[in-house]
Each structure stands twice: as C-alpha cells, then as structure tokens.
C-alpha cells in the first residue's frame, strides 16, 4: 500500500480517532445522558428531560460563578498574552546566555496550579504575606491589605496567580513564532525608517498571529474550566466572591451528590467555552484564508 493512498492515510488515523472517541466524544455523550436524569444518592434514577437545565438557569450560584469564571478567564488570557509578548520579544533579542534566560523563564510552568495557588496565598496573606511587608517598608500603606478578603482584589489575585503559571507557556509559543520570522524583513523595515514599535506592529504581530491565537485559545479554555487556583487560593470565598464555576460543579458532585445537575452544568460550561472558541477559530482559519 502506497503512502499516497487515501486508504493508507485513513488507517494511520484510526488509532487517533479511537483515542478521540474514547477520551472526548464518549464522555461528552455520557454527560449529556446524565444531564437528562434525576441522578443522586437518595432518589431512584428517572428521566427528567430538561429540568436539570431549568434548575441550573434558575440558580443564583450559576450566574455568580459564570460571571466570575468569565472575568477570571478573560483577565488571565489578556494578562498572559501581554506579558508573554514582552517576555518573548525580550528573550528573542538576547544573544549571550540565551539558554540560561530561557530556562529560567519556563520554571513557573513546572508548578501545578494548586501549588501556585498555595504559594500566592502565603505571599498575599494579610498578616504574614511578603507583599504587605514590602508595601509597608516602602511607606506605601499604613495598614495591611486583605488581597484575598476583598471581592475585586480576590479575583485579581487569582488572575495574577494563574498568569504566573501560564506566561511561560505563552512565551514559548510566541518565541517559536518569532524565531521563524526572517531577519531580512526587519532589516528592510529598518532601511525604510521603521522604529521598534512599527516593526512589532507590522511584522512581528501579523506574522505571529497564529501562535497568538493558539495560545489564547488554550489558556481561555483552561482557565474557564479549571478552578485549581481559587480552590487553593481562596476556596471560593469569602461569601462566594471568588466562586469559580468549577467550584460550583465540584460542590454539586462531591458535596451535594446531584450528578444529574452536575452533568447539566458541565454541558452549559462546555457550550460557553465553545462560544468563546468558535469566533476565534473562525477568525484564525476562515478569515486568514480569505486574506
């Protein structure tokens, strides 16, 4: 069988299709099936249709957690992209000792999100945190700031803690894209009198847009569905001011044992993420091809 044969290509893709079905499509279909049942540890399992979805959309916790997750996800993605661009361009310009600096820049990526949350919980502590100590030492504050006790500051702290973990990932993707841009384009731009900002806006960013899109998609999906940071940083409190949608889902499963409602919530969150992702994919694939 020749490698150019379509049948050969299909056979090569069969293992990947099996894995895709086993780890994505089957769990998704099973979640949809669970979401249509009254499934808990007290009552018999019966078909409920869309009643679980009705309960989700009538729950104040859903709207609270959805708003917090959206704010957290968009904030983390924006901050990670901004700092990742700065770090990637800085590393791209370093010639001596570049391997050392690049290795140091990816070290935060080795820390799991839960560990990162615990670390930043100690750093931002009102009584023992080093941030409050430094601010008092510099004379910028008179009283310690409760970063994790204030509604807005708690979300901002979560955004910063998660971005600290994801910035190395974004930096690697962007740096790989920058390395593939021919230096002759920058040299031609310099001859035409372009400054650093113009070279970034008209050369680096347009030719690196696919890497930007991929990095933003991955971080957007991970932050919206993953409550690890808030689980260890604030535990969703105080007063559910940092009640991530993932924490709401965990409560439905492990605290209240409402598996049917949890299935409905997981499908709603999946559709929300899909609503964020599809416009970016459309812009990255369809619009780019038209251009």
Please render the helix and strand layout as text.
Layout: H1 6-35, E1 37-38, E2 46-47, H2 51-58, H3 60-93, H4 98-105, H5 113-123, H6 130-137, H7 151-179, H8 183-191, H9 196-207, H10 209-225, H11 228-233, H12 245-255, H13 259-290
Antiparallel strand pairs: 1-2
Helix pairs in contact: 1-13, 2-13, 3-7, 3-10, 3-12, 5-7, 7-10, 10-13, 12-13
Spatial order of strands in the largest sheet: 1-2
* CATH C-level of the domain at 60-256: Mainly Alpha
State the CATH superfamily name of the domain at 60-256.
MetI-like
Q: Give me the strand/helix succession.
A: HEEHHHHHHHHHHHH
Distance between the amino and carboxyl termini: 38 Å
Number of strands: 2
CATH topology category name of the domain at 60-256: MetI-like fold
Indicate the radius of gyration in whole angstroms: 23 Å
| Shape category | flat
This entry's quaternary arrangement is single chain
The percent range for strand residues is: under 5%
Helix content: over 70%
Overall pLDDT level: 88
Return residue spans where pLDDT drops below 50 for at least 5 consecutive residues: none
Backbone structural class: mainly alpha
Largest sheet: 2 strands, antiparallel
Tally of helical runs: 13
- Please name the CATH architecture of the domain at 60-256: Orthogonal Bundle
What keyword list fits this structure?
291 residues; mainly alpha; MetI-like fold; two-stranded antiparallel sheet; 13 helices; 2 strands; 1% strand; flat
Can you summarize this structure?
This protein has 291 residues and is mainly α.
Describe it.
The protein is mainly alpha-helical and 291 residues long. The protein has a domain at 60-256: MetI-like (MetI-like fold). Helices cover 74% and strands 1% of the residues. The protein has 13 helices and two strands; from the N terminus they run αββαααααααααααα. The chain has helices at 6-35, 51-58, 60-93, 98-105, 113-123, 130-137, 151-179, 183-191, 196-207, 209-225, 228-233, 245-255, 259-290; strands at residues 37-38, 46-47. The protein has a two-stranded antiparallel sheet. A hairpin with a 7-residue loop joins strand 1 (37-38) and strand 2. Helix 1 packs antiparallel against helix 13 and helix 2 packs across helix 13. The relative contact order is 0.14.
């Amino acid at each position: 069988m020749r490698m150019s044969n379509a049948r050969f290509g299909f056979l090569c893709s069969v293992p990947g299709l099996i894995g895709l079905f086993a780890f994505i499509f089957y769990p998704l279909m099973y979640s949809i099936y669970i979401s249509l049942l009254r499934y808990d540890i007290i009552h018999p399992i019966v078909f409920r249709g869309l009643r679980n979805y009705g309960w989700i959309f009538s729950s104040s916790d859903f709207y609270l957690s959805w708003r917090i997750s959206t704010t957290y996800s968009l904030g983390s993605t924006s901050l990670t992209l901004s700092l990742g661009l700065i770090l990637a361009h800085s590393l791209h310009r370093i010639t001596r000792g570049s391997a050392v600096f690049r290795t140091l820049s990816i070290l935060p990526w080795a820390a799991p999100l839960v560990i990162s949350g615990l670390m930043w919980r100690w750093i931002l502590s009102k009584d023992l945190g080093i941030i409050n100590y430094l601010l008092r030492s510099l004379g910028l504050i008179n009283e310690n700031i409760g970063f994790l006790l204030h509604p807005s500051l708690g979300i901002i702290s979560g955004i910063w803690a998660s971005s600290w973990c994801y910035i190395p990932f974004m930096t690697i993707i962007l740096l790989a894209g920058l390395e593939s841009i021919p230096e002759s384009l920058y040299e031609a731009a310099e001859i035409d009198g372009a400054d650093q900002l113009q070279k970034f806006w008209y050369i680096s960013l347009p030719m690196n847009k696919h890497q930007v899109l991929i990095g933003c998609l991955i971080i957007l999906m991970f932050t919206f569905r993953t409550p690890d940071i808030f689980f260890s940083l604030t535990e969703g409190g105080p007063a559910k001011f940092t009640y991530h949608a993932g924490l709401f889902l965990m409560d439905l499963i492990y605290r209240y044992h409402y598996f049917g409602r949890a299935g409905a919530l997981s499908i709603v969150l999946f559709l929300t993420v899909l609503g964020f992702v599809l416009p970016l994919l459309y812009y990255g694939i369809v619009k780019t091809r038209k251009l």
